[in-house]
Design a protein that fits this description.
single chain, mainly alpha, 23 helices
Length: about 475
């Protein structure tokens, strides 16, 4: 269509000669009729027009990396009881689970460090290069877990190696989500950013389902002894081939139009792109950072509560059958995957704020009834309670990938978002399983998961109140995208 428009609007030489009077050549005193200036093509410096095929490739590559990250987290969460027996032998199952989730939470403590390294680096050298690097590190850390000897083989060295591998994973993921959401947001047209961004969390759910499905299959097919001796390693070893595929896809991508425009701007003014000080990314964006922390808090507390903690809650706290509990969570995630793109498209129509606000209100009102249904114990009640929480969570998974990058200007987007996102995840999201398990152990109150989600919903609601609507609008610091 663009080529056809250019063909119609820009006259060729033959057409130009036909507009001259017939006497123009013979009579030197007759002034020729001026030839009109060629019309401007639809793509101008004021509007970024991206190739739909390139946008699709960018979305696929970003979503696959996110899927690999959450494949690992899903496997770790769903096989947590087995990992506790392998790496933390103890006569107390609760102590084993706490130790396993402690190693899980440790990775989140280094995520802000990863964000402080990879985020500013992505704003300086480019989003694509940094995302390729984080993919390599994530795959290596996950693959390494599958090679660690058990506690019975090497003693205390086993949990220490597990902790080291988790720290590598945490450091690399410090630049993953912020980079992937920035990458998609900067490629997406303004009017479809919510729909395209929702595929990032579609990848998250696909990774969770892949990890949980594999653990469920192995739990059903293998004996307890086989699972403890070698079966638990298989899901982690799969990360190697997945990482190679993801790296290949990311290496084939071009840099985002928004970042390329920043480079061109610097070249046009003959100024080198200077390193943005960390202070400018934080102090210069403090209002946006506070909003980011609040939004990410409610997003990740509810996310980790439902997808990471609930399988262990059903098994260890409610003594629910392990296989059936995993199947219920798999069904909830499949439901969320179906709804996810439609909810993303809805954020383009009605806005990000109304959708996120609906999720906060839903968790505030329905967390207690949903958990009471889950505690009732029957398969139908558990499925209904988990399904309600899953549909509320879609309000966040569909809107956040497009809402969070829109909080920051292009020049500091990757860095500021990485810092705000990872600080919030480290303090509140990744620690959710550990904190809730400890609260239940200390108080004996089995409703703690509901109260924790309600508190997060209040904080998220305050953040939504103060955030600006970004649906259908250009990203700050970027030209309109079509």
């Amino acid at each position: 269509m663009l080529l056809w428009s250019l063909f119609v609007l820009v006259p060729d030489e033959r057409q130009a000669s036909e507009v001259l009077p017939s006497t123009a050549v013979a009579d030197r005193h007759v002034r020729p009729v001026p030839v009109p200036e060629p019309a401007k093509p639809p793509t101008s410096p004021d509007v970024t027009v991206t190739d739909p095929a390139l946008v699709r490739r960018a979305v696929k590559a970003a979503a696959l990396g996110n899927a690999m990250e959450w494949f690992d987290f899903g496997v770790y969460s769903y096989i947590a009881v087995t990992l506790g027996k392998v790496f933390f032998p103890s006569g107390n199952p609760t102590a084993q689970l706490l130790s396993t989730f402690g190693a899980f939470a440790a990775a989140f403590l280094v995520r802000p460090l990863g964000g402080m390294v990879f985020g500013p680096l992505g704003d300086r050298v480019g989003r694509q290069k940094v995302l390729a690097l984080t993919m390599i590190m994530m795959a290596a850390g996950t693959f390494a877990i599958g090679l660690i000897p058990s506690y019975g083989a090497i003693g205390v060295g086993a949990p220490l190696l597990l902790l080291a591998a988790r720290l590598v994973q945490g450091f690399s993921t410090g630049g993953e989500y912020a980079g992937a959401s920035t990458f998609i947001a900067e490629y997406a047209p303004d009017k479809r950013r919510g729909f395209l961004g929702s595929w990032l969390e579609f990848g998250t759910l696909a990774g969770y389902i892949g990890g949980a499905g594999l653990v469920t299959l192995m739990t059903a097919l293998l004996s307890d002894d086989a699972l403890l001796s070698w079966g638990w390693r298989v899901p982690f070893l799969i990360a190697g081939p997945m990482g190679i595929i993801g790296l290949y896809l990311r290496m084939r991508l071009e840099e985002t139009p928004a970042f390329a425009a920043e480079i061109e701007k610097a070249e046009a003014t003959q100024a080198a792109r200077r390193k943005v000080p960390l202070r400018e990314m934080v102090a210069g964006q403090w209002k946006a950072l506070l909003l980011c922390v609040g939004l990410v808090l409610v997003f990740n507390v509810t996310d980790y509560m439902l997808l990471s903690y609930m399988p262990s809650y059903l098994t260890s706290e409610l003594k629910y059958d392990e296989t059936h509990g995993l199947l219920v969570v798999l069904g909830v995630m499949a439901l969320m995957m179906i709804v996810q793109p439609f909810a993303g498209a809805l954020t383009d129509r009605v806005g990000r704020r109304p959708v996120i606000a609906a999720g906060c209100a839903g968790f505030l009102v329905l967390s207690v009834p949903a958990l009471l249904l889950i505690r009732e114990g029957s398969l139908g009640a558990v499925a209904l309670g988990m399904g309600a929480l899953g549909l509320l969570l879609v309000c966040f998974t569909a809107a956040m990938p497009s809402a969070l990058p829109a909080l920051f200007p292009t020049r500091v987007r990757y860095g500021s978002l990485s810092i705000g996102f990872n600080v919030s995840v480290s303090l509140f999201g990744g620690t959710t399983p550990l904190v809730v398990t400890a609260l239940i152990g200390a108080t004996g109150n089995m409703m703690m998961p509901a109260y924790y989600m309600m508190a997060a919903a209040v904080i998220g609601g305050v953040a939504v109140w103060y955030m600006a609507e970004s649906a259908g609008r250009p990203l700050p610091g970027s030209a309109p995208a079509a």
